[in-house]
Amino acid sequence: MEIQLSINQIPHTIDVSPGESLLKALRRLGYFGVKHGCETGECGACTVLLDSRPVNSCVYLAAQAEGHSIQTIESVGQHPEQGWKETPGLHPLQKAFVESGAIQCGYCTPAMILAAQELLSRNPNPSEVEVRQALSGILCRCTGYLKPVQAVLRAAAALRGEATEPIEPGSWLLPGLGQGTVPEGPTSYFPAPPESELHPENTAAVATRLLPKVFVVPQTQPYQRVGKPEPRVDAVKLVQGKPAYTADFERRDMLVAKVLHSPHAHARLKRIDASRARLLPGVAAVLTWQDIPRVVYSTAGQSDPIPGPLDSFSLDNKVRFVGDRVAFVAAETEEIAQQALGLIDVEYDPLPVLLDPAQAMLPSASQLHDEPEYVNFADSDPNHNLAARIHIDIGDVERGFADADFIFEDDYDVPKVQQAHIEPHVVITYWDEDDRLVIRSSTQVPFHVRRQLAPVLGLPVKRIRVIKPRIGGGFGGKQEVLIEDVAAHLTIATGRPVYYEYSREEEFTAARSRHPMRFHMKTGVKSDGTITANAMQVLSDTGAYGCHALTVTGNTGHKAMALYVGDGTYRKSPNIRFYADIVYTNHPPAGAYRGYGVPQGYWAVERHMEKIARKLGLDPLEFRLKNAVRAGELHPFSTAWSEGREPRPETIETCALEECAHQGKAAIGWDQKFGNAQWKQVPGQSHLRRGLGVALVMQGTAIPYLDMGGASLKMNDDGSFNLLVGATDLGTGSDTVLAQMAAEVLGVHLEDVIVYSSDTDFTPFDKGAYASSTTYVSGGAVVRAARQVAERIRTRAARMLNVHPEAGVRVDPEDLRLVDRQALAPDGRAVTLAEVAHNALHHEDQEQIMGVASFMSPVSPPPFAAQFAEVTVDVETGQVTVDKLVMAVDSGVIVNPLTASGQVEGGMTQALGYAVCEEMGYDKLGRPRECDLRDYHIFQAHEMPELQTIFVETFEPSHPFGVKAVAEIPMDGVAPAVGNAVLDACGADINANPITPEKVWKVLNAS
Ligand code: FES
Ligand code: FES
Description:
alpha+beta
């Protein structure tokens, strides 16, 4: 049918099918700023303005738009500089989003800007609460909403003609600690909170701070670009909704793929007949396990050799979870592909369903992996449904227990949860003109995709090219070679381009998730609070396949059980045990999710430590700090375990945990509130109780002797540089911090460094974005490449200056400083980098100035953090309201406080869901309970507590700029801190997260 409507004030007449959504129609017309995140009107990524009101275009029929006026992000503003053409430039909202660091992956940004524009059009002076309400329909999984809200408030002020504070180094930078040492005794740079902040109405969710507090180390003083809140290098394109993501790509004759998923949790395919589906007009191919080669592999995107069993096939004659693959279809349209799925006849032979990992290990349990091609790794044992087993004893654990005055034992549980990135998994594949297979994918691991899929597809690595465009969030979910093979097999079968994108339901049923685990903790303690031995036993549910099975659960112990080593002689020789069974069940496979096993471990460790401290009458923070590992000590697990590699001793060089605890305490008002019976009561509301909780955590930075990143830098005629990296910015801002490091070394501005990431044909190898490694590993490669380039520039610049040496003074290359786009001699003479580039490319002894370098670290320096939570519990309903979260972090030198604090705020918000509401459940047949973003709740803008981030810098000596990781550690401590705060508030001791009202109510009413 033909409809008429106006899009961005331009009249259009378009053909739409009766069931076509407005989202699909707009994207078909090239308005790629309208994003797909779900099909059910819950994520808000598809927001457009219809007659100036926000609507979710995914649940609005295109036909309903007849006669209406639509506005998309493409009409809001433009890049201010477009050659000779004058443009109105960016809209103040877009500018504010760029300047405020309100963008991470940017996938929700167009929708947020449109919703904010509508708000400001009717309310030019909104309160923060009103801004949060206006943004509440748009889910953001990256930012924690703090900076987007602040951006809207700044834009509102600008539109009213009011001045806004510049986002520059200022009062948020504070004198730091020096060389990573902690000063004697407690110090506090924060004044105690005023009396008014001891009342809940003043600690509610409306106090945003754009920039974190940063306690800087002296080594960063001379830096020009590192340590500065530079706007993201990709921000301007993302606020305009430019076609930057995988799905924003058009190709003639592209087919749409769909997958038939299993309705059974465990079954053999007795018979499969696709003949009726193949006859459907518009169907180009249907593939079953009988049609493609049977190649066993692992879907975990990891370096070679994969540290886990090979137990997966693109298609198999057996299904192992509800949602497992049965057949692939490629058709001319999505509707035809969907129809074809219903025409595939499958006869299943059901097998016993195993959902309890303890049951699955019994000798009588049926075997999930009985395929002869199975390739064992380490201690995997498919006969007993064991994907991996870990046994680590450090020191003499039994002796440590014997030395203890008290033994504390308890059990803890953590659930399966979802990454829930707003951009679904999406891939496009096609043959290029050289008959090479191009895979354009939203992946965190393009080089692993190429290497791991080559045998699966029957192609040599050299005939595959993987392009990673902008990623709309990943959080580990895209560290999986999850759907690229589907499209690739169909391109091979049809010869045509194929597009495959998960629906939100597929994200919940067929993508990866966080491993659910059961813990038994046993800790020996002396009466003075010295830990003499600490043991953790884990039962981890990997689901149907063993992707990341060994490494995720190994990290649970490696990071969470490394923090508390004991004190005195026990500190010198800690007694630590970590045993884990990682078991196959008929749940959907677990995998990588931000934190990589560590948030699970800290739930058990930090809930346990809190209870020990309380039972012994010790101050919970002092007890923790007394036993926590310190700078200069051996990482206790470094000689016991590595990720499938040989462990090697590693000393912790920097640790500001004690100072983090002091700063966090001051920021949350610990000394005024903790143990204050009066503060715990809410005046006039006898059903409410307040409480404070704390958790200390450590993570890692990359995988030692394994993770490697490469970088190449090329100088252009105008003194700008192309920085090519294989690293993948999945919204973390890594492209920006890598450019800052290059700009620092080269003495140029950030806009002089043009970053491209990543493409296996053009960018150097990088193992990808995981293990919190990009700033450290890929950044190390960038600095080395930049130093090579800087050396060439200095050499040539010295030669240019020495052609006519003034007063006979010659300069040596090493005398030159690269600063402000010049090579500057001590006597004040200078040549610009543009002059150097011209000289090199066109005039004299011509050469291309460029550098290529790699970085691999022999260590994994841990970041440390103290996480605090303040809650209010309704003791009548069990409702827990988190009022404030504070995180004080030692992540080494902070390259960009805007992007780094965005990581902390977003990570804390995801972890908040882990604390109080997120959980994936299954019925007895293994069918999922949560299949959309209505049933699986993630925090919205108006539900957020106050967030505060504090960086306590140390200078990590193994990195040229002293950095450590920041991306994952915010996930680790929120849930136990909230659990401890609930215990503090009302005595409810909840050992299984999330802490739902039902659990609290049951505990409080148990007697
Ligand atoms: S894509 Fe429309 S609400 Fe999610
Ligand atoms: S920046 Fe909001 S979803 Fe990523």
